[in-house]
Please model this.
Amino acid sequence: MVRVVGAVSLFAVRGVAAVFSPPWFAGQLLRQLRAIGFFSLPVVGLTAVFTGAALALNIFTGGGRFNAEQVMPQIVALGITRELGPVLASLMLAGRVSAAIAAEIGAMRATEQIDAMRTLSTDPFRYLVAPRLLAAVLVTPLLTIVADTLGIAGGWLVAVRVLNFNPTTYIHNTATFLQPWDVGSGLIKAAVFGFIVALMGCYHGYRASGGARGVGRATTHAVVSAAVLIFAADYLLTSLFAHP
Amino acid sequence: MSATPKLEWKGIDKRFDGAPVLAGFNLSVAAGRSLVIIGRSGEGKSVAIKTALGLMRPDAGQVALDGRDTVDLSESARRRLFSGVGVLFQGSALFDSLTVWENVAFRLINADGVARRAARDRAVGALERVRLGAEAADLYPSELSGGMQKRVGLARAVVADPELLFFDEPTTGLDPITAAAINALIVEQVRHLGCTAISITHDLASARTIGDEIAMLQDGKIVWRGPASDLDRTDNPHVRQFVEGRADGLVTGADQSDARAIRVGAGLTGGRPRQRNGGPQRAPVARRRPPTHDAGS
Model:
């Protein structure tokens, strides 16, 4: 366990160092921004809409037990921005992006493409790892903004269509209740989660061995470890940000 | 001939799980010469090349390029020193997300800072030197046959006019006619560049064609070395058995070399060989564990 933590830490340090030192591969960064960010929009958006809608129903039902139905818009907004937006967006990325990164880099390892890259005087950490880390850190907060917006919209839709809330009042209550830090803390979380997603994909892919079976194993490890680390980091960050 | 060898392995030891694969491996190649290392599968030929390229760190010994030890070089220093080295990998190792010309121009664009348009022109020129037309430039590697992929790999290896070329099993998996064409291209490119070449193969036709000299690796050491023309004349028993393809002799058909092949294969991919509980007659079977890639790779 200690050995694994050490190996992951060293990999992360080397990856971060590659982000901040030349040469930089702008084309690779743009490609990763598109792959990680743009192509994740549908899955993140749909997840957020349905989660916001379900959350609204649950809070309305639960709040009804102590006559607190009317605070449902505020609780949905708080739950989405502080917790569910960043966590769900990142978990979707863990499933979609960590797996893809681990499979791609793992296949490159298995077919000697990474060795070839080194013999072509190109550092794989700068060409493969750094653009993925940076792209994930940049786009996960943006995806979280989308998730926050659509999650709250999902709650609003259910509130208005099913629970007969006044649409204008719902939006007014949400807007006046939310504070910048509610959204900001979620975006900070998202950046950390994005780093975890890309790091786990790169780490497990880079160390893949054993042909197709090894690549499959690396993919599984990447997704599982990214998901677990996201939850662990979520607790740590929440306890750091919370003001009891 | 230059007094300093272009490349020299000095007392290289490399073990996988305690089992020696290279043991006191010494070999040098003079500038401008083409040396072929032959040997059975699993004898450590690929390990020797990987130690020379810095893809694997030896347990002991030195690898000197132009007289300078490369084992302890930093990654950036190694990149600078190896800017004049080209490699044709066994499976070509083409980047499947890039087109053919982007593969060939990879070093030019990403390491040498050549503009894409100029890099493409040079890549197309290199492709023509290996008998691939410009129409192949915009294809992806998956759209090419194995022989064409080898040609692209060769074009990528020579496009930056290297001083030292490595060929890792250049004809493996190719039919005899395509293999002969690749051998001819290798000879042509090495002569055209006037560079030093080091090849590993167990294809004797290939070794005879592309090598000025041949060295045989057995039990982690070079057991014979001589001009390519002496390969069929030497009375060295290891070479004779290898050339004649006999299963009986100094080395039996299935012996410790098979076990070593498993160790080498596991080591190259980061796995760890262990013995399965299958009785004393069964060959060890490799089980994988998370890899331990050497040299900070």
Summary: The domain at 7-287 of chain B is CATH 3.40.50.300 (Rossmann fold). Chain B touches chain A at residues 50, 53-55, 75-76, 79-80, 82-83, 85-87, 89-91, 93-97, 106-107, 110-112, 156, 269-271, 288, 290-291, 293, 297 (CB under 8 Å). The two ends of chain B are 34 Å apart (CA to CA).
